Amino acid sequence: MSVEANFAEIKKNIEQACENCKRAKEEITVIAVTKYVSTERAQEALQAGIKHLGENRKEGLLEKYETIGEEAAWHFIGTLQSRKVKDIIGQVSMIHSLDRKSLAKEINKRAHSKIPCFIQVNVSEEESKHGLNTSEVESFVETLENYENIRIVGLMTMAPHTEDEEKLRGIFRQLRALRDRIRDKRYKHAPCEYLSMGMSNDYTIAIEEGATHIRLGSSLVGE
Ligand SMILES: *Cc1c(COP(=O)(O)O)cnc(C)c1O
């Protein structure tokens, strides 16, 4: 299937999910996760009208960036080793995987301007997943106050791979409640308005539970 055809189907699902929860579809940013596919396929996504591309590895990002450059807004969505920050910091428009102080320090040091970051939260507390536990997030946000090149724009999570809808809703709701608590503190360095949650198998549920950024790989550009 072409990216365009996949995207048409996904847009219908997004509209339906938005209708179900009385949200405007303009609130949702679709990020095409291109980590499994070629640069040509990523360009197809741009031609289909998708401006946001996501990569989880430095190598994949730089390879595609070389051809596509600033035509796309690049989202770094994977585990980020501190020593690689300097290689991608000039290319990325958002980092979704901030999960520790040492990484924040490195981003703050290497960035030339404020970098919008999501804090990655391991809501489901699966051992295989990265991210802070929910109980650690609020104090982590407070420690970032003087990092002038970091702006905490929201929270990100990866839900477990399950068909259990209630379980997924529970996880998304916890992230949203945590987002609300941080947002309501009105920190200057952490407006924390956004929720990066929802992937190919759970994005409609994530939207109903408040997602603002959905990250779609297999269903949109393929595996
Ligand atoms: C791969 C990946 C996605 C996309 O996964 P699909 O299930 O293929 O949509 C989203 N977010 C992160 C962090 C990923 O690594």
From TrEMBL:
**UniProt cross-references to InterPro entries, sorted A to Z:** Ala_racemase_N, PLP-binding_barrel, PyrdxlP_homeostasis
Determine if Isomerase is one of this entry's keywords: no
Q: Which PROSITE patterns match?
A: UPF0001 (PS01211)
What are the recorded GO MF terms, alphabetically? pyridoxal phosphate binding
- Report which superkingdom the organism of origin falls in: Bacteria
* Chain ranges of the Alanine racemase N-terminal domain: 8-222
Gene3D superfamilies registered for this protein in UniProt: Alanine racemase
- Cofactors named for this entry: pyridoxal 5'-phosphate
| Modification N6-(pyridoxal phosphate)lysine occurs at | 35
The entry's keywords? Pyridoxal phosphate
Q: Which CDD domains match?
A: PLPDE_III_YBL036c_like
Q: Which NCBIfam families match?
A: YggS family pyridoxal phosphate-dependent enzyme
Protein purpose: Pyridoxal 5'-phosphate (PLP)-binding protein, which is involved in PLP homeostasis.
Family classification: Belongs to the pyridoxal phosphate-binding protein YggS/PROSC family.
Q: What is this protein called?
A: Pyridoxal phosphate homeostasis protein
